[in-house]
Design goal:
It contains four helices and seven strands; from the N terminus they run αββααβαββββ. With 126 residues, it is an alpha+beta fold. It binds zinc ion. The site of zinc ion has 7 residues, from loops.
Length: 126
């Protein structure tokens, strides 16, 4: 092991604050216990930045999905004409995923699902 390797074992970037620091032990991960605790509690500086960037990317679609969910939640157990739902702000092209079961297709928006009954009618479930 040359000097550089020996030194690099003690250099690290703290996953909590994102700052480079010199470790006291080669297996030290965080620059201090506060960073460690914040990281594990999900509110480290690095974590907050990652979450913020992620939300900037996902917010637009998530807002649409959330609105869809809100519209559908009002009619759980009912059959509705999609046109009426669209008039309430429902965007039928936005779903999280679909599932085929017993030769029926269910479209999921988070915890709500609907099934197409044809002719623009859907049945809503939760
Ligand atoms: Zn730190």
């Amino acid at each position: 092991m040359d000097n550089y390797e020996a030194i690099s074992l003690y250099e690290g970037e703290c996953p909590g604050c994102g700052i480079e620091f010199i470790k006291k032990r080669s297996n030290q991960v965080y620059c201090n216990s506060r960073c460690k605790n914040q990281y594990h509690n999900g509110n480290s500086r690095v974590g907050r930045i990652a979450t913020k960037e992620r939300h900037e990317i996902t917010r637009e679609v998530d807002d649409i999905l959330w609105k869809n969910r809100e519209v559908l939640l009002k009619y759980v157990g009912e059959e509705k004409n999609v046109k009426e739902l669209i008039a309430e702000g429902f965007k039928p092209n936005y779903q999280n995923y679909y599932e085929n079961k017993d030769s029926k297709t269910y479209f999921f928006i988070y915890d709500v699902k609907f099934q197409s009954l044809g002719k623009g009618i859907i049945k809503i479930f939760q």
